[in-house]
Design brief:
The protein has one helix at about 110-115; strands at about 10, 15-20, 25-30, 35-40, 45-50, 55-65, 75-80, 85-90, 95, 105-110, 115-125, 130-140, 160, 165-170. The chain starts with 7 loop residues before the first strand and ends with a strand. It is mainly beta. The protein contains one helix and 14 strands; from the N terminus they run ββββββββββαββββ. The chain is rod-shaped and about 85 Å long.
Length: about 170
């Protein structure tokens, strides 16, 4: 008698292999006639097998499709070289950042990175073992407080010097 096992599931975009066991012939409801089939659609799968004595028997298994997790690092962003930002993709079972750390969050510190555009990506895994990724670009700039390319940057510290000749704002 064939035994396809307990009902199973796969992650969206993947497939699962079903094995009809060791028999003489096979007929799946997919019209396949092989011992194993790979399926990538949710549903019931049946196999009719024939043994060496010509006896026939069948088994059915329910295959479900699990949705992929949806990490969300947000839109690309800008920070000043004296500031930092904490990236957080959401709550999942495990995390792997582009710098190989495995925390839920990642601190991007402009004092450490220096100026430039930096891409960060995360791969998350949910409780079903399904994985997905997200990417964000963090642009780090020396900030003057002036609207630059449509982005207003936060000024962390400024000093106002006043004198009879002029007032100076130093950031």
């Amino acid at each position: 008698m064939p035994n396809l096992g307990i009902d199973t599931a796969y992650c969206f975009g993947d497939s699962v292999q079903l094995n009809g066991g060791t028999f003489t012939s096979y007929l799946w409801n997919t019209t396949d006639t092989t011992q194993t089939v790979f399926v990538n659609s949710a549903g019931n799968y049946d196999v009719l097998v024939t043994d060496t004595n010509g006896c026939m028997n069948s088994d059915t298994i329910l295959v479900a499709e699990n949705a992929l997790p949806t990490p969300n690092l947000g839109a690309d962003t800008n920070i000043c070289s004296v500031d930092n930002i904490t990236l957080n993709s959401g709550v999942f079972n495990s995390y792997l950042w582009s710098n190989s750390t495995t925390n839920q969050t990642l601190l991007v510190d402009g004092n450490v990175t220096g100026t430039g555009s930096f891409n960060y990506y995360i791969t998350v895994t949910d409780s079903n073992g399904c994985m997905n990724t997200d990417t964000i670009t963090v642009n780090v700039s020396v900030c003057t407080g002036v609207d630059d390319k449509g982005n207003t940057y936060k000024i962390s510290t400024c000093l106002l010097y006043t004198s009879d000749a002029a007032d100076d704002l130093l950031c």
